Amino acid sequence: MRFRLFGGNGKERVEDIEGVEDYMEVDHTPENRGKLGIRVERLEDFSDTERVLKSVRDGNVVFLRIRSLKDRDLGELKRAVERLKKSVMANNGDIIGVEQDWLILTPEHAMVHRDSV
After folding, report:
1. Average pLDDT, the chain
2. Smallest Cα–Cα separation from 62: which of 115, 107, 32?
3. Which of the ends of the chain has fewer CB neighbours closer than 10 A, N or C?
């Protein structure tokens, strides 16, 4: 009996195992392979930055509405955006402003294509 120990990429290790009668292949891929999570969040306060960053670290693209904080405290908004920018860029992600009320934050495996116009 031959048993595939590692994936199916053509270079897997195959061994003979005594006592095993049927071919068995173990699927070790995550259920949501190939899917990209997209979350819509609101930045109400500076303390919300940690929740948003956790979502990006978890692999989600985040559409972040910043209007309420912008209307209430522009200084705190600048501080929050700077923290988000530094953290996202340090993790090889991307961040971009859309219109005046939204930011898009992406994890490492996603990026925002910018028009050169």
Report:
1. 80
2. 107
3. C
Residue-wise pLDDT tens digits, 65-80: 999 999 999 999 999 9
| Buried residues in 65-98 as b, exposed as e (16+ CB within 10 A) | ebeebbeeeeeebeebbeebeebbeeeebbbeee
The answer to the question of residue 43 being in a domain is yes
Alpha-carbon gap, residue 24 to 8, rounded angstroms: 12
φ and ψ of 69, to 5 deg: -70, -35
pLDDT tens for 80-99 read: 999 999 999 999 999 999 98
The torsion defined by the Cα of 108, 116, 101 and 106, in degrees rounded to 10, comes to -10
Q: What is the dihedral of CA 105, 111, 27, 13, to 10 degrees?
A: -130
CATH of the domain at 85: 3.30.110.150
